Amino acid sequence: MLDSSKISGTTRVCGIIGFPVEHSFSPAMHNAAFKALELDYVYVPFPVAPAFLAEAVAAVRALSMAGANVTVPHKKNVIPCLDKLTPAASLIGAVNTIVRRGEELCGYNTDGAGFIRSLNEEGQFIPGGKNVLILGSGGAARAVAVELALAGADKILLANRTMERASELAGVITMNTSAKAQAVPWLKLSLEKAVESSDLVVNTTPMGMYPHVEGYPDIPYELLRDGQLVYDLVYNPTRTAFMEKASAKGAMVLNGLGMLLYQGALAFELWTGCNAPIEVMRRALQEAVRF
Length: 291
Ligand code: NAP
Description:
The protein is of the alpha/beta class.
């Protein structure tokens, strides 16, 4: 439990703006990090109904907060409330981290960058020149696909139940980055080619997420092999049916806890200017996810 008796007149406030936010793991992760580095910061959950979003964001400035995370359903709608966006956040079209610099509110997207850092640190995977298959084309896929493209991935294939969404995202990437992005129909033959030609396969759909733990995306698992990395953005359960099926074919597998951890670490570094205590944050997350 956070020791609230330590909060004083100099304490800097960060938080998370979402609706709902009760189940967020971010307060546990950030408060553990502040405590470990003895930083005079506190991280608070703020349930903000959509009608109050603009007022809540204005409060980040008015209350001299260090910044805030932004989560569902506000990641897109927060953009008009901000003064500046990073080029990546602008391409992704969503913000998950606000940093206050004086009177200016700057919007970042650390979700995709957190994914890349997880790939580097936990999968020893460097995206430059690699071929990737992304399953799904929603908000998380957008962050992942844009950052993979900015990190130099060569070919990005997007398979989605709703083909138009995949085509739109492929167009954004091809027009704005050097990566070659293409939508592929969710059909046996096209998925076979895509799985065979990919170094990395990422599930960005919620299939397999608790409580529907028996679910998994329908892809030709028999074509997966040793040397490929298979990444599931889902982290509850920590070993999904998708990961089990890929691992059985020899692929290396990772769950989405690393992405969650590193998006938080990047936000922490933006707010405090200190290196994030990764292992402290990882332990806090693992404990929070277990309950
Ligand atoms: P979203 O914007 O609603 O997108 C969901 C995507 O999954 C869409 O492409 C959707 O296809 C597809 N999909 C949903 N149900 C499906 C089904 N039954 N069969 C086939 N496709 C299906 O959601 P999101 O924000 O991108 O989140 C997606 C997942 O990523 C969630 O499980 C979320 O918890 C996880 N996530 C993890 C992290 C992390 O840090 N690890 C961060 C963000 C999100 P259509 O376009 O056809 O609807």
